[in-house]
Amino acid sequence: MTENARTLTEFMEAVWNQGDASAVDRFLADEYRIHSDPGDPWDGATLSPDGFKERLRTSRAAFPDLRFEIAETVAAGDRVAIAWRMRGTHTGPLGPHPATGRRIDVPGMTVYYFRAGRITGHWQVVDRLAVAQQLGLGGAGAVPANREAPAA
């Protein structure tokens, strides 16, 4: 495992899984660019560490038990890509939507960028339709959390 991959694993555990906003300062560069994250309110934004902490607080307010399970890690140069599953219970507001009490279990992939051992941004794809379906917020053909879609 590369040093950047180890750093990213520690970042995911401390910041996203534990919700430790103070840990952000150990991992992020002074500017963090969200290159692409369609459907995320911060898509395209460049955040300071304090701006990233606000993003973390907002995300975890909707899902206080949010957890990312890393399934695959690929590191090359200044990039580390991870495939993951995101799980949590919707117990707080998500944008205009009040808490549903429902659980989500969705896949995604993120490429993180590094400079001098610090994370400078990401490019992410997440199944936001599955999130909406699992929360009962719309979308046809919903697959309940923790269930596999039937084989075609």
Terminal residue distance: 36 Å
SSE order, as H and E? HHEEHEEEEH
Average pLDDT works out at 91
The CATH architecture can be named as Roll
Extended strand count: 6
User: Approximately what portion of the residues adopt beta-strand conformation?
Assistant: 35-45%
**Which stretches of 5+ consecutive residues score pLDDT under 50?**
141-147
Number of domains: 1
For the largest beta-sheet, the strand count, sense and barrel status come to: 6 strands, mixed
Supply the number of helical segments. Answer: 4
CATH topology: Nuclear Transport Factor 2, Chain: A
What class would the helix/strand composition place it in?
alpha+beta
Rg to the nearest angstrom? 15 Å
Query: How would you describe the shape?
Result: globular
Strand order of the largest sheet: 2-1-6-5-4-3
Please report the first level of CATH classification, the CATH class.
Alpha Beta
The portion of residues assigned to helices is: 25-40%
